[in-house]
Design goal:
Layout (H helix, E strand, L loop, with lengths): L1 E6 L4 E6 L4 H10 L7 E4 L5 H12 L3 E5 L2 E5 L21 H10 L1 E5 L12 H9 L3 E5 L2 E5 L7 E3 L5 H11 L5 E5 L5 H12 L3 E3 L5 E5 L8 E3 L4 H14 E7 L7 H10 L3 E3 L3 E4 L9 E4 L10 H8 L4 E7 L8 H7 L3 E5 L2 E6 L7 E3 L3 H13 L3 E5 L1 H7 L3 H7 L3 E6 L2 H9 L1
Parallel strand pairs: 2-14, 3-13, 9-10, 17-18, 21-22
Antiparallel strand pairs: 1-22, 1-23, 3-5, 4-5, 6-8, 7-8, 10-12, 11-12, 14-16, 15-16, 18-20, 19-20
Helix pairs in contact: 1-2, 1-3, 1-6, 3-5, 4-5, 5-6, 7-9, 7-11, 9-11, 11-12
Bound molecules: uridine-diphosphate-2(N-acetylglucosaminyl) butyric acid.
Uridine-diphosphate-2(N-acetylglucosaminyl) butyric acid (EPU) binds next to helix 1, helix 4, helix 5 and helix 11.
Length: 428
């Protein structure tokens, strides 16, 4: 097992290229199940979640070729193999196999998903949607069993705005008979990306990216070619890296419109930002000011950037308050930042950050993906060396993180953990 070593304090500059969006990729790959001929997805990120989904498609009989970020899936010989255990448990997004397999085979057995622990993450709205389309859904010993004689379009109002439920219902509804209307749908760019792929496959979808999506079911979906959108959360992370330790960092292959809330907040902090069609330049701030942030559904401030931004705020003058309205327990990075000398307390759903402080290198543990990103940013800002364990979380979502940061002039490397360190981690 490896840990990440970061020698802080090196000024960063240069260009970093953003990979394809993780949260699109994990839905686009299962969506290929719905086609009857090969689908090619271009520009996928090189992350472990993508690799696991590739393995799962092969487990159910798909033929998958994956090289240089492009994946071609031939779904023609797939079968509705039950997947109650094993790799499905390793990632949250394995729930998209439910919608896709239900759409194609009218039945599926999928183990309840894993993923980051951010407080309760129910999937009741996904299930409500599948039931409205005519599926019988039961939970047996930690696996969800779905079965339908036929899927029929329905009007579904989501009680909670959910990215996962919106996409999952879309996946099943494209092969239902008649019209489905999803009301109070999520509007994230990843939903538009999935709808674009499905439309290229022959689906009839209107309104993706608004809160009402209309889907007219079709009998057949065919193969196609699709290029994934850039990862707005990875781009946002590097924008924060640029603000935290940069002398001028250019983020390439980004859709600035997807990041308006972060751009506005960084500018409010005093960070120089210039954006054009597909690039964002982050210049240094003379002196960063404290700001308050509340995470909201898109286009509000994304919960996925709340943790990375908290690290940056430790260097800002004054008191900042970060409130997460999406997840109740996305604050596991705070104790680790405190080990690095941050002055932060958590009150309910808010973190209160007093700055500026000079962070100090320490041994810290990433509890989840974005906590890992937050600790890497803190390590770049800190004096001395920071050791980050829990690297498997970071590898789930950041493609070539070490190479990209070293390309900007950081001093960061992976190191094999000693037996004693592994033992200590197990007992912690
Ligand atoms: N929720 C319900 N019932 C449901 C579904 C969701 O109560 O049936 C609640 C959740 O508990 C949460 C809120 O609704 O409080 C929003 O959840 P949503 O379903 O939108 O989240 P998700 O689909 O599980 C995706 C991303 C997350 C990201 C959220 C919010 C993927 C694979 N994951 O999760 O990404 O935080 O949307 O934008 O797309 C990450 O990338 O680090 C990450 C966790």
């Amino acid at each position: 097992m490896e840990k990440l070593m970061i020698a802080g304090g090196y000024p960063l500059n240069g260009t970093v290229r953003i990979s394809g969006a993780k949260n699109s990729a994990v839905a686009l790959i299962p969506a290929t199940i719905l086609a009857e001929s090969p689908v090619k997805i271009e520009g996928l990120p090189d992350i472990s979640d993508v690799q696991i989904l590739k393995d799962l498609l092969e487990e159910i009989g798909g033929t998958v070729e994956f090289s240089e970020n492009d994946m071609t899936v031939d779904p023609s010989s797939m079968i509705s193999m039950p997947l109650p255990n094993g790799k499905v448990k390793k990632l949250r997004a394995s729930y998209y196999l439910m919608g896709a397999m239900l759409g194609r085979f009218k039945k599926a057995v999928i183990g309840l998903p894993g993923g980051c622990h951010l407080g309760p993450r129910p999937i009741d709205q996904h299930i409500k949607g599948f039931e409205a389309l005519g599926a019988r859904v039961t939970n047996e010993q930690g696996a969800i069993y779905l079965r339908a004689d036929e899927l029929r379009g329905a009007r579904i109002y989501l009680d909670v705005v959910s990215v996962g439920a919106t996409i999952n219902i879309m996946l099943a509804a494209v092969r239902a008979k008649g019209r489905t209307i999803i009301e109070n749908a999520a509007k994230e760019p990843e939903i538009i990306d999935v709808a674009t792929l499905l439309t290229n496959m022959g689906a009839k979808i209107k309104g993706a990216g608004t809160d009402v999506i209309r889907i007219d079911g079709v009998d057949h979906l065919h193969g196609c070619q699709h290029t994934i959108i850039p990862d707005r959360i990875e781009a946002g992370t590097y924008m924060i890296v640029g603000a935290a330790a940069g002398e001028g960092v250019l983020i390439d292959n980004v859709i600035p419109h997807h990041l308006e809330s972060l751009i506005a907040k960084l500018r409010e902090m005093g960070v120089q930002i210039e954006a054009n069609d597909d690039q964002v330049f982050v210049g240094p701030a003379e002196k960063m000011k404290a700001v308050d942030i509340k995470t909201l559904v898109y286009p509000g401030f994304p919960t996925d950037l709340q943790q990375p931004l908290t690290s940056l705020l430790t260097g800002a003058e004054g008191t900042s308050m970060v409130t997460d309205t999406i997840y109740s327990a996305r604050f596991k990075h705070i104790d680790e930042l405190r080990r690095m000398n941050a002055n932060i307390k958590v009150e309910g759903r808010s973190a209160i950050i007093n700055g500026p402080v000079q962070l100090q290198g320490a041994k810290v543990k990433a509890s989840d993906l974005r906590a890992g990103a937050a600790l890497v940013i803190a390590g770049l800002m800190a004096e001395g060396v920071t050791e980050v364990t829990g690297l498997e979380h970071i590898d789930r979502g950041y493609s070539h993180l070490v190479e990209k940061l070293n390309g900007l002039g950081a001093t960061i490397w992976r190191e094999e953990m000693s037996k004693e360190e592994m033992e200590q981690m197990k007992n912690a």
